[in-house]
Specification:
By secondary structure, this protein is α+β, with helices and mostly antiparallel strands. The protein has a single domain, classed as HIT-like (HIT family, subunit A), CATH 3.30.428. It contains 2 helices and 5 strands, in the order H-E-E-E-H-E-E. The protein has helices spanning 4-10, 57-73, and strands at residues 17-20, 24-28, 36-42, 80-83, 99-103. It has a 5-stranded antiparallel sheet with strand order 1-2-3-5-4, with helices on one face. The longest helix has 17 residues, at 57-73. Bound molecules: guanosine-5'-monophosphate and zinc ion.
Length: 112
Amino acid sequence: MDCLFCKIIEGSIPSKKVYESGSVYAFRDINPMAPVHVLVVPKMHIPSMDGVNAENSARVADIFEAIPKIAEAEGLTNGYRVISNCGEDACQTVKHLHFHLLGGRKLPDQMA
Ligand code: 5GP
Ligand code: ZN
């Protein structure tokens, strides 16, 4: 499958790994929008939030268990933001479900 993040997960495209478990991979965004900008993804290919269902939602739960661990390891003691862009209107560019973990500075209070 021609998926950028699947290639990053399998290692054929390099990335700066920050966390890995059996089902979750996290790496630094190539174009960081904050001092800490990590992408947290399921190893399983799920195209977007629209593809989450009863069969794969446990993988999404794994991501949400990983996020506080990554935030702590990254020193985000003063808070952080988690964003997932889904589809056209949200400007999703990579069609493999991912969660942006952003922090390390005061983020804008406007989300959109
Ligand atoms: P989206 O716009 O789909 O929510 O987010 C995709 C993110 O992937 C963007 O923030 C973009 O900078 C990041 N990205 C795109 N290509 C690469 C890559 O090859 N390596 C890494 N580490 N991040 C990438
Ligand atoms: Zn994929």
